[in-house]
Design goal:
This protein has 207 residues and is mainly α. The protein has helices spanning 6-26, 30-41, 50-58, 62-86, 93-107, 120-131, 134-159, 172-183, 185-191, 194-202. The radius of gyration is 20 Å and the shape is globular. The two termini are 22 Å apart.
């Protein structure tokens, strides 16, 4: 809406509506089943968000401590979007999306480790930067991918408690990604954004 990209918004709306209608045609009860599953979810999950795990489960600081950390995280997210939408710093758009996805996984009421697949999106950015370093960068990418494949499974197998994942399984990836995004934020900003390029070209800006 900020960039007045009405064709994109309209196309998205039409496609979303079509897919929604198709989903009800294929599985008419999916919405009620989904709501029922949400209602039952807390009956077989022990942990809340990563922030909840740290502040309540480990540190015992209660709801006040949890929401204090959440407030800090949300302030960072709102600051990121303020820069993009109000100050017009559209080169930060991609970074704002990534920081939003990361903070969502840290502070949502519930999360699950399969959801962390979304972190592959910012990792592609870092892999591209490493790949530009020729042979050294390519080798590092291979080692990082192997580590991401093997280490979480090792942690899972060594720490599993009955039918439940250990609380630490929820912590290292979103927390690490938050730190990485924060300390490399200027790299993201300097790289620009596909959004900024599109908006600039539509306004006759060749930069």
């Amino acid at each position: 809406f900020r960039a007045r990209r009405w064709q994109f918004i309209g196309t998205f709306g039409v496609m979303f509506g079509a897919l929604l209608l198709a989903s009800f045609a294929l599985q008419p009860s999916w919405l009620s089943d989904w709501i029922e599953q949400i209602r039952r979810y807390t009956s077989y999950t022990d942990f809340g968000s990563p922030v909840w795990i740290v502040m309540q489960h480990y540190l015992g600081l209660g709801t006040i401590g949890e929401w204090a950390v959440n407030a800090v995280l949300w302030s960072i997210m709102l600051w990121a979007w303020y820069a993009v939408l109000i100050q017009g710093k559209t080169e930060r758009f991609d970074w704002a999306i990534m920081i939003t996805l990361t903070i969502t996984h840290l502070s949502a009421l519930r999360t699950a480790t399969p959801h962390f697949v979304v972190f592959m999106i910012p990792m592609i950015f870092y892999f591209r930067a490493l790949d530009r370093r020729r042979k050294v960068g390519s080798r590092r990418i291979v080692w990082i991918l192997l580590a991401l494949l093997i280490l979480p499974w090792l942690q899972f197998l060594l720490t599993i408690d009955g039918d439940f994942e250990h609380a630490t399984m929820y912590l290292w990836l979103p927390s690490g990604m938050l730190a990485l995004l924060w300390f490399t934020r200027r790299t993201w900003w300097e790289a620009g954004s596909l959004f900024a390029a599109k908006e600039g070209s539509s306004n006759g800006d060749n930069g």
